[in-house]
Design goal:
By secondary structure, the protein is an alpha/beta fold. The protein folds into 2 domains: 167 residues, Isopropylmalate Dehydrogenase (3-Layer(aba) Sandwich), CATH 3.40.718; 126 residues, Isopropylmalate Dehydrogenase (3-Layer(aba) Sandwich), CATH 3.40.718. Helices cover 39% and strands 23% of the residues. The chain has a 10-stranded mixed sheet with strand order 2-1-3-12-11-4-5-10-8-9, with helices on both faces. It has a two-stranded antiparallel sheet with strand order 6-7. Strands 13-14 form a two-stranded parallel sheet. Helix 1 links the parallel strand 1 and strand 2. Bound molecules: 3-isopropylmalic acid and magnesium ion.
């Protein structure tokens, strides 16, 4: 009997619907070949949800996602995504940054600086400055706005454990981003070091986030797993896009303690290219691969990654990537067909 899953697709806005459609086309083909049965439900989030149901993240969407095996998100400008992450307590955000060898000359750095690059960003996703007390107010010197960075020690502890586990399964090296020279009350370094006593093989290094940003560009091969809070993780992981050639290639998985997950590319809605049929679906498709891994469908995930590598190695590329001599520029639909052929 085939394994059965229910997936909720939330295409969202901008290029979201295009990359989700492309990814689902590839997934349907792959699932059939692998004898996996996937029921796909579609839901609304972001602007389309606001227009139709009166809220960026409507109750109907939350209910549709409840009990599913995964959520595949396209992109939203802002409204809906933070609510969705918080609703299901998706506190773990995994953002793997691995170079495709055939795209090594599309990096913003010299090829030898990124050869074999393989970094895992572990970003805390449901706390920090994104969710602390915020608002607009007024005092004697005028109107002001505020957002508060706020972390419970237990929130740092639980994400630290996840990052340490990943480091242990990889190169046993964990770099913790912090800014304790200016923000001394949030104890990332101490708490992660405390948790690390249960992971004696893992080498933990705490690094000021500004220095870390510089080191990531100077010598990215020096990193294995990078743990960061919500805001720093958001900023640092975009550097990953520049390192491997395009943010359009990067995927992420957001998980809660039960292993339930939201899968999405790390790029945004890209309104400038929306509807033109030129968006790169590989970020979202990479997220599908992460979902299959999370489901324990390792074989299907491997095939999908190999298909991506194969098509890229054949020289096909989308407009977000720096042109390369001999490369063949393709749009979303053509790339999707090529991926299906490769499978
Ligand atoms: C990301 C995005 C989001 C974030 C935005 C859309 C709120 O930049 O997932 O990286 O900051 O988390
Ligand atoms: Mg971001």
């Amino acid at each position: 009997m085939s394994r059965q899953y229910r997936l909720v697709a939330l295409p969202g806005e901008g290029i979201g619907p295009e990359v989700v459609q492309a990814s689902l086309d590839v997934l349907r083909y792959l699932a059939e070949a692998e004898n996996i049965s996937i029921k796909i439900d579609h839901g609304l989030i972001g602007e389309p949800a606001l227009d139709t149901l009166g809220s960026y993240f409507p109750t109907q969407t939350a209910q549709l996602c409840q009990g599913a095996d995964g959520i595949l998100l396209g992109a939203v400008t802002k409204g809906g995504i933070l609510e969705l992450r918080q609703h299901f307590d998706f506190f773990v955000n995994l953002r793997p940054v691995r170079v495709f060898q055939s795209l090594i000359d599309r990096s913003c750095l010299q090829p030898d600086k990124v050869n074999g690059l393989d970094i895992l960003f572990v970003r805390e996703l449901v706390s920090g400055i994104y969710f602390g007390p915020s608002g607009r107010a007024e005092d004697e010197s005028g109107a002001y706005g505020y957002h508060t960075m706020h972390y419970h020690d237990w929130e740092i502890r639980r994400i630290a454990q996840v990052a340490l586990k990943h480091a242990q399964a990889r190169q046993c090296q964990l770099t913790v981003a912090h800014k304790e020279n200016a923000l001394p009350h949030i104890h990332w370094s101490r708490i992660v070091q405390e948790e690390a006593t249960s992971f004696p093989n893992v080498m933990v290094e705490a690094m000021l986030v500004d220095n870390l940003a510089m080191q990531l560009v100077r010598n990215p091969l020096a990193f294995d797993v990078i743990l960061a809070g919500n805001l720093f993780g958001d900023i640092l992981s975009d550097i990953g896009g520049a390192l491997i050639g395009s943010i359009g290639l990067l995927a992420s998985a957001s998980l809660n303690a039960d292993g339930f997950g939201l899968y999405e590319a790390i790029h945004g809605t890209a309104p400038d290219i929306a509807g033109k049929g030129i968006a790169n679906p590989l970020g979202t498709l990479g997220a599908v691969a992460l979902m299959l891994q999370q489901w324990g469908e390792a074989n299907a995930a491997k095939k999908l990654i190999e298909a991506q590598e194969k098509v890229l190695a054949q020289g096909y590329y989308t407009a977000d990537l720096k042109p390369q001599s001999g490369g063949i520029l393709v749009g979303t639909a053509a790339l999707t067909d090529l991926l299906i052929q490769a499978l």
